[in-house]
Amino acid sequence: MDVLNGFAAADFDFTFLEEGFSARDIMEQKINESLLSDDKDAFYVADLGDVLKKHLRWCRALPRVTPFYAVKCNDSRAIVMTLASLGAGFDCASKTEIQLVQSLGVEAGRIIYANPCKQVSQIKYAASHEVQMMTFDSEVELMKVARCHHNAKLVLRIATDDSKAKCRLSVKFGASLKTSRELLERAKELGLDIIGVSFHVGSGCTDPETYTQAISDARCVFDMGAELGFNMTLLDIGGGFPGSEDAKLKFEEIAAVINPALEKYFPSDRGVRVIAEPGRYYVASAYTLAVNIIAKKVIKKEQSGLDADEDDSTLMYYVNDGVYGSFNCIFYDHAHVLPTLHKKPKPDEHLFSCSIWGPTCDGLDRIVEQCVLPDLQLGDWLLFDNMGAYTVAASSTFNGFQKPDIHYVMSRAAWQRLQQICAQGLPDALEEQCSTNATSCGRESSLEIPAKSCSTRVL
Ligand SMILES: Cc1ncc(COP(=O)(O)O)c(C=O)c1O
Fold first, then answer.
1. What φ, ψ does residue 170 adopt, rounded to 5°?
2. Domain total for the chain?
3. Which residues form the Orn/DAP/Arg decarboxylase 2 N-terminal domain (predicted)?
């Protein structure tokens, strides 16, 4: 496949970065362009080279584990296209996500329908589109699948102790070990094929030992399955991996716990294929959001009945994206965000206690309750890093505010690397560390990308 043609014909705004230019330069360029006009809408710059870097890092740290990217985290076509080119698989939660991934030419075997509670019509859709791998955690789900999808390859989702994760999932999903046995017995009666076990330690995991416990629990369920005559060959270790460098627990620290646990409970020579469903890991750090100050209020101390000293005022900044847009992550993803300044303050510049608010008429629409910033003016820009995960995917246009445009970039060097991986697989240095499982590090790339108009430019 010619990735270059695929991207050049894609329907998103994409710019190649020549040597010496970075995503930050594009951001700067867009901001400079905005100085000449009134158009100061919020926008993203997303570096697809960062996604590539993450993939190489994944393959190095977890050579046995094939990533199936969790589309729900950021369903932008450019992201899915990049990961499809790298040979990743996909975790889809719905018919629409399956449609998106398949529209890019990804074969059904590279998709896991990883939603344990599915609408019947969507199970039928998966069946008619040859998507066979799917998760379940209840008897009712087994019965639906028995009725609608005779070729399903079922993966039993087990609960984990996700009490230390940022976003807990096991309150809603996952069977206990006791229930797992009952479900396996029921599946046997229904003549269904159970191929493996999945779990999710919770998004934003802070305790790597949760993976060890979950892998050990999965081993128990494999053993129960074997007793009942199932040939289980798939372990899905879910998501939970950090997406930015400011996370307390580093990706490599988690990998250092997972690898020995896999070796202990699922030794590589036993033929169990291991996959994962990383979302945040792949996309968080690739996206930077620029928002513009559209209104401002100065709250003087005297208003609160104290001494009136200008320097003691607090400032309220109103910007053009908020919690109903990209910053929905504050509510849904328990995110804490802080801006960086586009214009560097002078060394002696006075700093004020500030709050930052979104553009809607809702009093809930507050992005930052308290931070320290200089006296900024209308039209100034604030930047937010690490905004790729659970942001654009769940944002709305409440109050009529449109979602920010996304400008994708990739360096020429990253581009060439992507093409090379697409054509020849991973470079030798990485392959030496990769397992013998050919799908693990993304060598099954066979993506056809549809021709559409684009605005590809070279800096
Ligand atoms: C089933 C499933 N898999 C994977 C993910 C992705 O998790 P993360 O972004 O923590 O990697 C989620 C997130 O909610 C999920 O529900």
1. -75, -5
2. 2
3. 48-284
